[in-house]
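TA notes, week 10

Several of you asked for a full example with nothing omitted. So below is the full record: structure tokens for the whole chain, then the designed sequence directly under it. When grading your own attempts, check the secondary structure regions first.
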């Protein structure tokens, strides 16, 4: 695409935005145009199908320009975010050219680093940019070895089995000699490490007891810190959006739904649920209060506890207070969590009096000591004795990727591999240079403490000394906590390379920025439904790359070529060769399962392959086999049972993760003397974005207040501070300050501010430490410690702050347009 064409794109963009994006247009059948990889875009209009984290969609393309997006006719509940997908292709924040930070271009890796983030970029040719990148990887590998390269590169890259940029960066680094990676994720950092000790598997990413079973059998459905109406809009793969009809069907039964959440969620409203708002970060205390009532009233299931669990006897003295003199009764819990003791007792009786499903979200483990929340939830469910029964027990993923939507009888589509680190390479550099992988949320700790030691799940390892950081498919300057500390720590890095499609805060911090295509500018394919696996969908190229953007695959191929390793990287296969070979592998697996698979060409033309859902999967009950026979079907824990007490964790002797579920107040718990600031910051996931994705689009207009990220404030807190709805407000603590727009509403509990994660960081003066963030990145306020030595997860949901009406001249928001030289 030429510069002239780009200019015409931005001219026409605004026009088609107004005419497009009507979700009412669901059902307009796409006449799928078969698309070849090298197809040139003809004049005229066509409809092309692709897929994204937001769903399968049909895009109308006119004279090579995407002009209208419509959800797939088979999508039962398209997300209101879909219009942002179209806008993200042409938005003013799009990266069009390879750019290098001026000072870096002039002085290389020894350049001053203070001007990082100040957007002083110089446009360079692709050849120049690729030379810089290839030479720098080689320099660092030669001088310092693979342990000096961090390419953990966490993030929600786009779906697609081939253009999987995080796998591609790993593949590149493996081909070129090795790198340091990241372990775990930001979503379930604490839960996915504790759960294997408790139930023998990650659990957070497991299929749930199916929705039809809940509809038929559950009496009380509890959404504990879970808002599926909001969070099931998206999927790690391509969403099936199956949960929405099930929620509707559940509601139609008229059965009880309870939402335990400091925010009156969309789910609570939709389901006419009883809303209980505990003080944030105190759920473990509330659960203990319920557990104590169950025990003291004899409502706990002793048979279940003795047959299916280990260690209740060791937990019991803590619960009753025999161990420490403090009974964890309803009155005790009430003082901590703010829910009246009578209500806590009532919940215990209600839960024990019928079939109860405790469906938990993940925010409560994205907090200091977050391991305890899900451990205590499982313990509570074990005391109720309903785990493994139809409609009872606990579920940790009903709010994610439409968990509980029955799984189809299909196959998994394989993806391009990462080429694995060669075994000769690994031990040598590992032995001398520290961990080859760090817990993913310890990245800043790692940069601050080269050669420092860290604990993780029973091991002690050494942080490597990182010189080069390479990021693709993630936005660490949105997702990581304590932004000001992070900006400072990042200055220790000699070179920071980023591939991005958008001028995110991360791209702005880079020394070398390479423009990546979006999924809509390349061919790929992906599965529908992380849990339901309903089928495979073709993600067809919609338009030619914008500006000089290239796919991550092409960029890495070119870098490997410069270092003489192109064939190892590409295996001499083109985009379409890869898609066909991955499809053929799935097709032969399908053959062995007796599933009829069309040829690749037929699939590509039709746009999808959809599978049948067997009746048995509609009746799936999680843990049913274990319940049926715990000896024949033991869990993967040391005892084969649900571990309420873990000897493995006991052996670790961690002061911040005791061997049974324990209430420990997080630092910055509001209302206690040691906490300086009075308001809790609820940094939950945004309703109209996927993290930071689509923040740069027109969708922002649907929620921004005076151009800033909204901060929801309870009317009492607002009144105390003279704040009115729509005011610009400064939210601040000792770590930083952000400008936001006040939304005064009793949707949030008193004492709790809600500012969703993913707002683009936009420091008013990037050269000044702690400068006011003009748009509203909540991670300016959060703190950066591990949940505990066990999991080292992030604590994105733990922070206290205060808010005041902003007076004076507000700084301009600059982050949504490209830096001047990049236009
Ligand atoms: P995204 O905004 O999705 O956030 O953090 P994550 O980094 O995943 O960023 C993905 C980036 O990848 C986008 O900038 C997008 O443009 C880019 N991208 C997409 N596709 C491609 C591609 O094909 N190639 C390249 N090169 N780039 C691509 C999310 C993380 O945030 C998560 S998962 C969670 S659960 C955490 N949640 C919280 C929280 O609850 N509270 C706080 N305070 N903080 C959090 N941070 C975490
Ligand atoms: P959150 O919105 O952070 O989502 O799923 P997760 O469940 O972690 O939190 C859920 C609820 O917990 C919120 O309603 C919040 O108010 C509540 N909450 C916060 N603190 C507390 C507390 O102390 N106690 C109680 N009881 N409740 C509390 C995140 C999941 O969503 C993940 S990990 C990803 S990567 C995806 N991200 C998005 C996204 O960015 N945007 C949308 N629309 N959907 C997503 N789905 C996925
Ligand atoms: Mo997540």
């Amino acid at each position: 695409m030429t510069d002239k064409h780009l200019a015409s794109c931005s001219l026409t963009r605004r026009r088609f935005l107004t005419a497009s994006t009507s979700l009412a247009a669901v059902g307009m059948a796409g006449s799928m145009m078969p698309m070849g990889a090298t197809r040139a875009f003809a004049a005229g209009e066509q409809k092309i199908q692709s897929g994204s984290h937001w769903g399968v969609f049909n895009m109308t393309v006119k004279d090579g320009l995407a002009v209208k997006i419509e959800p797939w006719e088979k999508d039962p509940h398209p997300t209101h975010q879909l219009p942002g997908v179209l806008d993200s292709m042409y938005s003013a924040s799009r990266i069009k050219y390879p750019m290098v930070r001026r000072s870096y271009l002039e002085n290389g890796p020894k350049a001053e680093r203070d001007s990082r983030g100040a957007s002083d970029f110089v446009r360079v040719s692709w050849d120049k940019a690729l030379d810089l990148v290839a030479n720098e990887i080689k320099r660092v590998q030669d001088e310092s070895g693979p342990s000096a390269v961090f390419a953990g590169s966490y993030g929600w890259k786009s779906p697609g089995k081939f253009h999987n940029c995080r796998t591609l960066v790993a593949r590149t680094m493996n081909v070129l000699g090795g790198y340091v990676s990241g372990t775990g994720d930001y979503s379930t950092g604490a839960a996915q490490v504790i759960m294997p000790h408790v139930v023998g598997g990650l659990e957070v990413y497991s299929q749930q007891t199916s929705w039809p079973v809940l509809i038929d059998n559950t009496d009380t459905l509890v959404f504990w810190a879970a808002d599926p109406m909001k969070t099931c809009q998206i999927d790690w793969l391509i969403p099936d959006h199956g949960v929405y009809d099930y929620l509707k069907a559940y509601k139609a039964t008229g059965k009880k739904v309870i939402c335990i959440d400091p925010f009156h969620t969309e789910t609570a409203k939709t389901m006419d649920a009883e809303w209980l708002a505990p003080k944030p970060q105190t759920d473990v205390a509330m659960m203990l209060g319920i557990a104590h009532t169950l025990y003291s009233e004899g409502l706990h299931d002793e048979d279940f506890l003795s047959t299916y669990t280990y260690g209740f006897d060791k937990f019991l003295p803590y619960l009753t207070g025999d161990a420490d003199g403090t009974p964890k009764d309803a009155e005790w819990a009430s003082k901590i969590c703010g829910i009246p003791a009578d209500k806590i007792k009532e919940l215990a009786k209600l839960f024990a009096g019928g079939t109860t499903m405790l469906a938990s979200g993940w925010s409560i483990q994205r907090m200091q000591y977050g391991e305890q929340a899900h451990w205590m939830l499982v313990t509570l469910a074990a005391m109720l004795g309903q785990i493994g029964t139809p409609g009872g027990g606990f579920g940790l993923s009903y709010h994610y990727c439409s968990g509980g939507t029955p799984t189809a009888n299909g196959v998994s589509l394989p993806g391009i591999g990462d080429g694995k680190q060669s075994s000769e390479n690994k031990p040598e550099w590992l032995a001398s240079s520290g961990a080859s992988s760090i817990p993913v949320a310890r990245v800043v700790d790692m940069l601050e403490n080269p050669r420092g030691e860290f604990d993780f799940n029973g091991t002690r390892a050494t942080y490597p000394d990182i010189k080069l950081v390479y990021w693709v498919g993630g936005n660490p300057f949105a997702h990581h906590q304590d932004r000001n500390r992070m900006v400072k720590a990042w200055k220790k890095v000699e070179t920071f390379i980023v591939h991005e499609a958008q001028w995110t805060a991360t791209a702005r911090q880079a020394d070398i920025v390479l423009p990546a295509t979006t999924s809509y500018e390349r061919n790929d394919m992906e599965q529908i439904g992380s849990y339901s696996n309903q089928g495979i969908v073709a993600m067809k190229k919609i338009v030619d790359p914008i500006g000089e953007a290239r796919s991550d695959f092409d960029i890495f191929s070119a870098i490997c070529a410069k270092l003489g390793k192109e064939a190892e990287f590409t295996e001499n296969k083109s985009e379409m060769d890869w898609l066909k070979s991955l499809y053929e592998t799935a097709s032969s697996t399908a053959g062995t399962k007796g599933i009829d698979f069309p040829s690749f060409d037929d699939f590509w033309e039709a746009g999808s392959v959809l599978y049948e859902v067997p009746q048995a999967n509609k009746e799936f009950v999680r843990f049913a086999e274990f319940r049926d026979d715990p000896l024949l079907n033991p869990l993967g824990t040391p005892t084969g049972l649900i571990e309420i007490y873990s000897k493995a964790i006991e052996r670790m002797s961690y002061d911040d993760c005791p061997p049974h579920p324990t209430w420990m107040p997080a630092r910055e718990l509001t209302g206690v003397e040691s906490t300086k600031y009075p308001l809790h910051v609820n940094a939950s996931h945004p309703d109209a974005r996927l993290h930071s994705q689509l923040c740069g689009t027109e969708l922002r207009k649907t929620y921004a207040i005076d151009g800033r990220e909204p901060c929801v404030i309870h009317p009492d807190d607002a009144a105390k501070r003279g704040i009115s709805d729509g005011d610009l407000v400064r939210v601040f603590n000792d770590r930083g300050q952000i400008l936001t727009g006040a939304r005064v509403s009793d949707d949030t509990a008193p004492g709790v501010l809600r500012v969703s994660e993913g707002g683009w960081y936009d420091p008013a003066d990037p050269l000044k430490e702690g400068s006011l963030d003009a748009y509203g990145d909540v991670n300016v306020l959060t703190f950066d410690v591990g949940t505990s030595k066990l999991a080292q997860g992030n604590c994105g949901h733990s922070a206290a702050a205060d808010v005041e009406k902003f007076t004076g001249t507000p700084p301009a928001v600059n982050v949504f347009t490209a830096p001047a030289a990049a236009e």
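The first strand starts at residue 45 and ends at 52. Use that as a sanity check on your answer.
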